[in-house]
Give the backbone structure.
Amino acid sequence: MNQRIEKLLAFLKESPNDCFLHHALALEYVKEGNEAEAKKCFEHNLNNDEGYIATYYHLAKLLERNGDPTNAIAIYEKGMAHAKAAKDMHSYSELQSAYEDLVY
């Protein structure tokens, strides 16, 4: 296990619901090719804070890579709705672009 993952896991013991830490851990798992653990971290964020917009793009991309376009589309759509509600047009645009690349 790499040192970043070990540190993030230690931080999560102190703050188990910190979305930033779960997101960072998920990205480390993706780098290592451990997409099952990454998916768990991303899903944790969606279950605990649907407003954590960064999760949507990365989870949908993971689903795409793993041959699950139907669920990836649903995640992009949900993310776009949350980004729009938060007036986060940069994230909305990124999600929309990835969504359109997949759908069209």
